[in-house]
Automatic annotation (TrEMBL):
<protein>
    <recommendedName>
        <fullName>DUF4133 domain-containing protein</fullName>
    </recommendedName>
</protein>
<dbReference type="InterPro" id="IPR025407">
    <property type="entry name" value="DUF4133"/>
</dbReference>
<feature type="transmembrane region" description="Helical">
    <location>
        <begin position="24"/>
        <end position="45"/>
    </location>
</feature>
<feature type="transmembrane region" description="Helical">
    <location>
        <begin position="51"/>
        <end position="71"/>
    </location>
</feature>
<keyword id="KW-0472">Membrane</keyword>
<keyword id="KW-0812">Transmembrane</keyword>
<dbReference type="Pfam" id="PF13571">
    <property type="entry name" value="DUF4133"/>
</dbReference>
<keyword id="KW-1133">Transmembrane helix</keyword>
Length: 115
């Protein structure tokens, strides 16, 4: 009976496609759609194909290289952590003691009272 069903051993692992992991696949897909729309817009505006094609190929190759480089450098969740860490302040400044004097001890934490 066990030979009929296949066991999926990839549970809780991020999706991976040709070395891209996690949300980088979506970034690449969105970038390719933007490139396609750029090509269409330039073509409809009347730009020549000898101008459009090298531009789209250059932008596409830079998109591929940058997304693969980000995926390799940061991994699945590393870029999100990096961007979140950049948003943290270096220090917190309080101009008043009211923040601390207004603190109350929770009923269950009576042993943690500050003297």
């Amino acid at each position: 009976m066990s030979s009929i069903y296949q066991i999926n051993k990839g549970i809780n692992k991020p999706i991976e496609f040709r070395g891209l992991r996690g949300h980088y696949i979506a970034w690449l897909a969105i970038g390719l759609v933007v490139l396609l729309l750029t090509f269409i817009a330039l073509y409809l505006l009347g730009a020549g194909l000898m101008v459009i094609m090298p531009l789209v190929f250059a932008l596409g190759s830079s998109l591929f290289f940058s997304v693969f480089r980000l995926s390799k450098r940061f991994g699945v969740h590393g870029l999100s952590k990096y961007l979140a860490k950049r948003e943290l302040p270096d220090y917190v400044k309080f101009r008043s003691r009211r923040v601390f004097t207004g603190l109350r001890v929770m009923p269950g934490n009576a042993e943690r009272q500050v003297v």
